[in-house]
Amino acid sequence: MPNALVVGNWKMWGSREQAKTLASSVAGSSQSGVDWGVCPPFPYLQVAIDQLGCDRVGAQTVSADQSVPHTGDVSAEMLADLGVRWVIVGHSERRAERHETNELVRAQVERALSQGLVPIVCVGETLEQRNAGQAESVVVEQLDAALQGLVPTTDLVVAYEPVWAIGTGVVATPEQAQAMHAVVRQRVKDLGLSDRTPLLYGGSVKPDNAEGLFALADVDGALVGGASLDAQAFLAIIDAAAAAKAE
Ligand SMILES: O=C[C@H](O)COP(=O)(O)O
């Protein structure tokens, strides 16, 4: 059975000193059956690498373009040069606030793969879409746009993050999470990708709900926002993943 994967998304949080303290506070965690890492903001990637090593660090986005004049962008080549392992693409905050389309997310996935980075491809529906009965179709459309026809040269990770559960304290019920993860698992397989592709759940994951989520058949780990900013909470979520794996 593959390891569980727990990734902390620090979003636009912290200072250099806070990043160093948080990274060093979680650095010692080593649980059998669990792989984990953190995605700090760009300016603190090196701070995290210094504390944790490259294999435990990812970026939060990447340019869809190659290294030509794009003021403010960070290329996949730069991230690979830095040595980070993962890059989050298609997070709903970027889709909504930075108007990142399915097409742009696809280009980011391709750029990441071209440089040997592991994309963590985020998909998920809004509350309006769920209430309209469109959760599955929205997620399948996002998956198809990002992954159809890909021949990945590295691993790939998919994160199902219902937008209504992000930063709200409202976590998907086990039934909702499992139902959507089963849809994602099947679609990933239908798209010709490995059925061992790790599927992470994201959206208000906390120490007190993590074990229940990790116990679900098609949940292979978590993409953790707010709780990853608290070292004890993040470590407890890693422990919960280890406990679920051990059962
Ligand atoms: O990438 C992480 C997700 O946006 C979840 O954030 P959250 O755990 O604060 O709800």
Largest sheet: 8 strands, parallel
Shape: globular
Distance between the termini: 12 Å
Number of helices: 10
Assembly type of the chains comes to single chain
Poorly predicted runs are: none
Number of domains: 1
Function: Involved in the gluconeogenesis. Catalyzes stereospecifically the conversion of dihydroxyacetone phosphate (DHAP) to D-glyceraldehyde-3-phosphate (G3P).
Family: Belongs to the triosephosphate isomerase family.
EC number: 5.3.1.1
GO molecular function: triose-phosphate isomerase activity
How would you describe this structure to a colleague?
The protein is globular. It is of the alpha/beta class and about 250 residues long. The protein is about 40% helix and about 15% strand. It has a single domain (about 5-245), classed as Aldolase class I (TIM Barrel, Alpha-Beta Barrel), CATH 3.20.20. An eight-stranded parallel beta sheet has the order 2-1-8-7-6-5-4-3. It is built from ten helices and eight strands. Bound molecules: glyceraldehyde-3-phosphate (G3H). The site of glyceraldehyde-3-phosphate has 14 residues, from strand 8. Glyceraldehyde-3-phosphate binds near residues 161, 167 and 205. It is an enzyme of class 5 (isomerase). Involved in the gluconeogenesis. Catalyzes stereospecifically the conversion of dihydroxyacetone phosphate (DHAP) to D-glyceraldehyde-3-phosphate (G3P). Pathway: Carbohydrate biosynthesis; gluconeogenesis; Carbohydrate degradation; glycolysis; D-glyceraldehyde 3-phosphate from glycerone phosphate: step 1/1; Carbohydrate metabolism; erythritol degradation.
